[in-house]
């Protein structure tokens, strides 16, 4: 393995080192990476065309384009990386390598290197290849590079990348919160549990200032969102603030409404009930995206100085002169209207909660911090938008 | 029609779809059913419906797609023709994974599942497709255009005997006035992108409130073929995309003119038949016969006869009349000073005493007089628009008029009574 060129990438503040190595050296370095490659999508199902052709080409000695890796969590100052140091860092930290671009080619190399013909096998393993490794790349930089490297190829969704970015949070507690993933086949039931996917979607709504579900958009359109993220994230971890704000809101609602339930006479059909209790009302994905988009909008309008302001103002939320049952009736009635009159119920629900949280957290509004009056205000705004 | 997906620049027609091992999605395949393999799926479509209770055969059903830009997700109606239930109609959005609408009833769930299966296989009379990533999972709403409404028909109840697309399309076209009457524009050649907004949704709202069925009828037996062919073309190919209400008015009036032309021809035939009768050998008798013919050949006279012979539509024509009067009134008020309005005495004779939407014309002895007024108002409207449509400042009034005109024409097409052709001669 030789480091033949070192360039500093000022955009993502990391070194880009071009290595020259044999296929065998490369496959040895990434052996563990393939088993735990959370940042990459799954292997594309065998295509009878492109990758089989590539395998044949590799066996015949073709030079494949450089594969791009990243060595995360390595702190190297701008002018402080020599070729020797680069080789040493990589050799000592192979377990920290991530494949940014070239997973499919890597699999093809593995297949070529396992050829039953010993001559072909030996030729493949000893052939040279180039590998670019980003050294000193943080998580945002990793995703940014994956995004831009991915341009023109099979795109990854922003949510996929955000999920990958915040994979670490699954294992650590954010102020006592535990995230539950769908793959765990569990549901977020207790107070401290949040559905990871829904929380991520809500956070996306904050970034995008848009309560609508993620749709498949041009890859390059996502760069702006990621840049917003990286700008804000350089000061503090906004995802943490977002989650803490949400928890602060839920805590207050729980305090105010407790175990109060929608009166039985209001329940004409269980299928039409949005939430029998306050917790059921708010523990839905549409609510989270509305919450995220509303806070993002309030920040853009400079009504909120910081996302963490919500953690303070949430403590003052009240029911006004209404009871918890009044709140539940009003909320379920609003959701029933949406279910009966809108073209896309899910989107209308998200829009409702976008208006709802804007009303709730806007100090200039008449429904500021009032759980009940914000419902009517939100519904009026929704009706004027949709009808 | 067909569904196709584009993957990495290559277009793949979808020929087959089946529930995956994971029943929460359908796999879409380019190979026919006998050849499809699990790992050859082009892409997948999410399914949130429960398994069907009965064993249905997909070939026993047909699916058509319509565009309606204001159809709420919660609206699901049974389709009825006469006393027969022939299918179900609902928003495509109800098939998306976040929707629970169809799951509230067993039959809805099953029909929804059948429709989803057929749409995934491209087995409908409407086109669909998009750029996809191989192996990815999509919502059905991503493969077909926005504002799509799905109608699933039971082939046997519709007397559809073959699996041929042509037969199904003929079935749909034969009933197209019934669909357009509710603002449902058939997606036959293209999706919904260019389709105009449809605002006259009072009927639909009423159906939803009463939890009623959506009734469809085929063209009336006596409705002339030439008029039928023109109307089908208008409803399927022109009206959905024509935004200007004045132009739509003229197009719908062409239907009237087409019917009047048929009457013209028949009057002529009647004249020729009568003229050969010896009693008309005398000059005075022949003169009277010619005068009678000339009287009925006037367009406004034939229009009055057409409208009055279709008294079953007195309510619809009454509402149309009131819309015409309203717009004529606006034109009169906005016309240049000194200009004599081109309206006739019919407008002066009809006084608008109630808001247009609330006017109902009961079928009383007075009906024939009111129907004559409707014909006159329509005729005057046609003349006024032809000369002065630029003067109409309220597009909303004109839109409402044309929407009502469209509904009236659609009703006329399915309830048409052929006018009796008679030349009344002074004895």
Keywords:
heterodimer, A: about 375 residues, alpha/beta, 5-stranded mixed beta sheet, two-stranded parallel ribbon, about 50% helix, B: alpha+beta, 6-stranded mixed beta sheet, 13 strands
Strand and helix layout:
The complex is a heterodimer of chains A (about 375) and B (about 425).
Chain A: E1 2-9, E2 14-22, H1 23-35, H2 50-59, E3 67-72, H3 83-92, E4 97-101, H4 103-113, H5 118-126, E5 128-137, H6 139-149, H7 158-165, E6 178-180, E7 193-195, H8 196-208, H9 221-233, H10 238-257, H11 278-282, H12 285-300, H13 309-313, H14 324-341, H15 345-360, H16 373-386
Parallel strand pairs in A: 3-5, 6-7
Antiparallel strand pairs in A: 1-2, 2-5, 3-4
Helix pairs in contact in A: 1-4, 2-4, 6-9, 7-8, 8-12, 12-15, 15-16
Chain B: E1 3-7, E2 10-13, E3 16-19, E4 25-29, E5 43-46, E6 61-67, E7 76-81, E8 84-91, H1 106-120, E9 128-132, E10 137-138, H2 140-143, E11 148-154, H3 165-174, H4 176-180, E12 185-186, H5 202-210, E13 214-215, H6 225-238, H7 245-275, H8 283-297, H9 299-309, H10 314-334, H11 345-349, H12 367-388, H13 395-415
Parallel strand pairs in B: 1-9, 5-10, 7-13
Antiparallel strand pairs in B: 1-2, 3-4, 4-5, 6-11, 6-12, 7-8, 8-11
Helix pairs in contact in B: 6-7, 7-8, 7-9, 7-13, 9-12, 10-12, 10-13
């Amino acid at each position: 393995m030789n480091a033949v060129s070192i360039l500093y990438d000022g955009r993502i503040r990391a070194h880009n080192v071009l290595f020259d190595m044999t296929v065998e050296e490369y496959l040895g370095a990434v052996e563990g990476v393939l088993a735990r490659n959370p940042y990459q999508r799954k292997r594309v199902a065998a295509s009878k065309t492109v990758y089989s052709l590539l395998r044949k080409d590799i066996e015949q000695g073709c030079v494949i384009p450089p594969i791009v890796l990243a060595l995360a969590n390595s702190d190297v100052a701008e002018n402080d990386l020599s070729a020797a140091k680069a080789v040493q860092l990589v050799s000592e930290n192979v377990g920290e390598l991530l494949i940014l671009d070239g997973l499919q080619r890597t699999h093809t190399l593995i297949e070529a290197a396992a050829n039953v013909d010993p001559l072909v096998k030996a030729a493949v393993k000893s052939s040279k290849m180039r590998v670019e490794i980003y050294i000193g790349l943080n998580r945002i930089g990793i995703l940014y590079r994956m995004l831009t490297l991915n341009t023109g190829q099979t795109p990854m969704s922003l949510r996929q990348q955000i999920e990958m970015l915040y994979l670490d949070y699954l294992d650590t507690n954010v102020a006592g919160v535990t995230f539950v993933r769908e793959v765990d086949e569990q549901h977020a039931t207790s107070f401290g549990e949040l559905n990871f996917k829904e929380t991520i979607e809500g956070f996306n709504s904050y970034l995008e200032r848009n309560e609508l579900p993620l749709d498949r958009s041009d890859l390059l359109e996502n760069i702006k969102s990621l840049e917003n993220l990286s700008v804000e994230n350089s000061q503090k971890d906004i995802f943490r603030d977002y989650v803490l704000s949400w928890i602060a809101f839920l805590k207050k609602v729980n305090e105010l409404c407790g175990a109060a339930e929608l009166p039985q006479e209001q329940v004409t059909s269980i299928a039409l009930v949005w939430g029998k209790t306050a917790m059921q009302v708010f523990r839905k994905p549409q609510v989270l995206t509305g919450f995220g988009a509303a806070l993002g909008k309030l920040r853009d309008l400079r009504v909120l100085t910081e996302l963490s302001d919500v953690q303070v103002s949430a403590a003052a939320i009240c029911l006004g002169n209404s009871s918890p049952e009044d709140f539940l009736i009003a909320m379920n009635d609003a959701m029933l209207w949406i279910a009966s009159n809108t073209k896309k119920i899910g989107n209308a629900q998200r829009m409702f909660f976008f208006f709802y949280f804007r009303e709730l957290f806007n100090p200039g509004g008449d429904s500021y911090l009032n759980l009940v009056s914000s419902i009517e205000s939100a519904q009026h705004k929704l009706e004027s938008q949709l009808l | 029609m067909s569904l196709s997906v584009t993957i990495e620049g290559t277009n793949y027609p979808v020929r087959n779809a089946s529930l995956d091992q994971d029943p929460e999605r359908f796999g879409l395949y380019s190979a026919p059913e006998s050849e499809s393999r699990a790992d050859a799926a082009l892409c997948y479509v999410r399914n949130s419906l429960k398994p069907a209770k009965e064993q249905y055969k997909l070939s026993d059903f047909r699916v058509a797609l319509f565009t309606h830009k204001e159809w709420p997700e919660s609206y699901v109606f049974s389709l009825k023709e006469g006393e027969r239930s022939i299918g179900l109609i609902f928003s495509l959005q109800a098939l998306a994974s976040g929707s629970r609408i169809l799951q509230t009833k067993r039959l809805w769930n099953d029909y929804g599942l059948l429709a989803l299966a057929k749409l995934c296989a491209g087995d409908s009379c409407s086109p669909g497709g998009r750029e996809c990533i191989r192996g990815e999972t999509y919502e059905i709403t991503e493969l077909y255009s926005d504002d799509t409404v799905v109608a699933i028909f039971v082939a046997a109840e519709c007397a559809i005997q073959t699996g041929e697309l042509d037969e199904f399309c003929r079935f749909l076209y034969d009933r197209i006035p019934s669909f357009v009457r509710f603002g449902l524009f058939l997606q036959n050649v293209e999706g919904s992108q260019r389709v105009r907004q449809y605002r006259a949704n009072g009927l639909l709202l009423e159906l939803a409130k009463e939890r009623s069925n959506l009734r469809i009828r085929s063209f009336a037996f006596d409705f002339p073929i030439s008029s039928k062919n023109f109307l089908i073309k208008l409803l399927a190919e022109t009206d959905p995309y024509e935004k200007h209400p004045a132009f739509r008015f003229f197009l719908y009036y062409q239907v009237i003119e087409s019917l009047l032309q048929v009457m013209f021809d028949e009057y002529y035939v009647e004249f020729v038949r009568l003229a050969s009768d010896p009693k008309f050998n005398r000059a005075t008798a022949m003169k009277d016969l010619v005068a009678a013919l000339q009287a009925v050949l006037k367009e406004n006279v034939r229009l009055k006869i057409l409208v009055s012979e279709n008294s079953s539509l007195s309510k619809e024509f009454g509402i149309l009349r009131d819309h015409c009067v309203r717009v004529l009134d606006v034109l009169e008020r906005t016309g240049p000073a000194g200009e004599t309005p081109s309206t006739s005495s019919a407008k002066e004779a009809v006084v608008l005493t109630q808001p247009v939407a609330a006017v109902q014309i009961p079928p009383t002895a007075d009906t024939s007089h009111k129907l004559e007024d409707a014909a006159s108002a329509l005729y005057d409207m046609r003349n006024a628009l032809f000369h002065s449509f630029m003067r109409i400042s309220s597009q909303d009034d004109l839109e409402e008029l044309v929407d009502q005109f469209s509904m009236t024409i659609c009703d006329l097409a399915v309830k048409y009574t052929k006018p009796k052709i008679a030349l009344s001669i002074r004895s």
